[in-house]
Amino acid sequence: MSVGDVVYAAYERRLARSLDRSSLPRHVGVMLDGNRRWARLRGQDTKTGHQAGADNIAAFLGWCEDLGVEVVTLWLLSTDNLARPPLELDPLLQIIETAVADLAATGRWRINPVGALDLLPQRTADSLRDSGARTALVSGMTVNVAVGYGGRQEITDAVRALLADRARAGASLADVAASLTADDIATHLYTSGQPDPDLVIRTSGEQRLSGFMLWQSAHSEFYFCEAYWPDFRRVDFLRALRSYADRHRRYGG
């Protein structure tokens, strides 16, 4: 081990000890960004970058689990990404299927696929549903895997489901309009029943939401990290948590 490694390890331990465990987030959302750019910097193909990103997920979930995080949402593929050329999209979907199945196989976490699964290839949708079903009774941390996910799509799907439920109950459109509340929509979101994300992390240096959890992140704290996702380390996560704990959260003002 080099001198640099020793110093780094000591810094990481000190950072972990300094965290106020009573001020940590219950729900962490992560935009796993930068896989393609990570690959280009190394002269490698896109598939290699996506695989490197997938290989970093289990370690990250372990860090969250160790610190008592209850829910993690991982944005793996947006609805916009579905328009990518098949030569790039097909390998990415295979990587996602395998990564999620591997997470389910550990038996440590409850996998919850979120997104417009009907927009995905049947094979991918079935694989994600199977991973969810196999971990439905797991009592550990909930891991939302957002595949074919878009914030606008989620809200659209929630409103559509709400209208369908009310119609089955015999309500007219006028009745729905007269009684509709924000809570009514929230109960039909993909993450219904879960706490909203306290902290949203985006890697790769980009500082925008790109539609991630538009409804749920109204009061979230945001942390933007320069590291590409495959290079995201435990110390980067600890820094995000330190930043979160140091903030005074204000709800609505």
Query: So what's the overall shape?
Result: globular
The major sheet is characterized as: 6 strands, parallel
Rounded to an integer in angstroms, the radius of gyration calculated over CA atoms is 19 Å
Low-confidence stretches: none
Proportion of beta-strand residues: 5-15%
Overall pLDDT metric: 94
Name the strands of the widest sheet in spatial order.
Answer: 3-4-2-1-5-6
Count of all domains: 1
CATH architecture: 3-Layer(aba) Sandwich
Describe the structure.
This protein has 253 residues and is α/β, with parallel strands linked by helices. Helix content is 47%, strand content 13%. It has 10 helices and 6 strands; from the N terminus they run H-E-H-H-H-E-H-E-H-E-H-H-H-E-E-H. It has a 6-stranded parallel sheet with strand order 3-4-2-1-5-6, sandwiched between helices. Helix 2 crosses helix 3, helix 3 runs parallel beside helix 5 and helix 5 runs parallel beside helix 6. The radius of gyration is 19 Å and the shape is globular.
